[in-house]
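Marked as duplicate of an earlier ticket. Keeping the data here for the record.
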Amino acid sequence: MKRIQYLLVVMILLAAFIFIGCASAPAPGSGTKTGGTKAAMPDPEAALRAYDFSVLAKIEEKKLPRYVAAIVGDATELKEAKIDLGELMQDAINKSGRLTLVDRKSLDKIMQEQKLSLTGMFEEGDVRIGELAGADYLVLSNIISSSQQKVDKVVYDMMEVKVVVQIKLVNVNSGEIFVSVKGEGKSETKLVTDSDGNLVSGAVDFNNMYASAVLSAVETLVPEFINKFPAIGFIVKMEGEVLTCDLGSQNGIKQGAYFAVIRPKGATKHPVTEKIIGYEYDYLGYGTATEISGTTSKITVKEAVGEIKAADLVVSIQ
């Protein structure tokens, strides 16, 4: 009898623990959720302090505040291939929509007229070319190493090509290196041979392989420095808390992108060289892009610390 009573007590206690556990567990769809965490909102004012705003001086000249760059670098001979690194760089940068590139034909004309040459290694003449071309930055690119090897995969061979590309951005105004990045690109081709070593399939086109490897490196490196250049545009219309600006998908703007709103005040010049080394502005607030077309975006204001008007500037922030 006592044993039965003991078992009953144990069963009651177990039932109580199960009930309490179920009651304290969060109901489906409630409580803390895991996964799909939204990225934290960046600090707008801190993000703005990291940018070079000397480009805003162009507004005083009735020009759009766009960063202009000139690509420096000639075609490179790589063993069995000739790679036009400048052309590959141009395509990758144009896709970003963040930098306006000087036309390469115009650059060639300037060099011929001034009897200058592009080295791609950052020399004083390169900066001079940038000044004459009206560029804010020089994009210097070099293939600093390359290799090719056949790798035995037992049942087949793999021809592997590797390159290391270095990209430097030089501020034409100061002559200083703004950013320098380096990365590797790789391309592979499968080779199948018969018992006598004769190639059955997988003909090697080294020109394409090296071009593919360089492109791989370039597409990895360009995002590393392109985000240091914000998209800057004008507010063209205000409708309550929604503003329309002159930046769109062609400028690399995406749904949900964050923007700070600023009002330019004036340039800061060096007391000796009188070159513009910065630009003062008032921070007015921030918002997120909600509707995007090719040339315009609608931004919903999330915070306003001052009156926002048409003709104020929006600046993309990371």
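See parent ticket for discussion. The chain has two domains: 44-48+230-317, 68-226.
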